[in-house]
């Protein structure tokens, strides 16, 4: 989705691989890498002080990391579904004819949440880029809202690209 979004979307739509599950794993790995000290502190807290409180700290880290990418994926899936419905295209995972039988020659539509999850990958990439730049420079070049705005513009462009690709089916 970063280097070649058109071919990545086409591959995902045809093979139905990737999507929301991959986004969740990417976010969790990004959180582990970017906030390793907090993760280690939470694990040590769980071992030394309280298992439940340590797990709650880890859950809080994961929830805060997942909030923005999953929110972008949910909104993107809603936009794709509504835009395809308004245009009159198929919105369900099954492509059926008038009699309810599957149409030959057309593969089923992928789940919109998976397509939108793939479109939300830039949220994670921009957040990681912001973290790397702020750590290497010593201070953030953009405020937090600037990174979020850049990610939002990128996600909107990818959702539009996905809509064009799905509407052409």
Model description:
There is one protein chain. This protein has 169 residues and is mainly α. The chain has a domain at 5-18 and 68-167. It has helices at 5-15, 20-34, 36-48, 51-87, 112-119, 121-137, 144-167. Helix 4 packs across helix 7 (144-167). The longest helix has 37 residues, at 51-87. The protein is globular, with a radius of gyration of 19 Å. The two termini are 20 Å apart. The relative contact order is 0.17.
Helical residue percent band: over 70%
* Count of discrete alpha- or pi-helical segments spanning 4 or more residues: 7
Stretches where pLDDT is under 50 for at least 5 consecutive residues are 93-102
Order of helices and strands: HHHHHHH
Which class do the helix and strand fractions yield? mainly alpha
First-last Cα distance: 20 Å
Which percent range describes the beta-strand content?
under 5%
- Mean pLDDT score, rounded? 84
The global form is globular
Q: How big is the Rg?
A: 19 Å
**What composes the largest sheet?**
none
Number of β-strand runs? 0
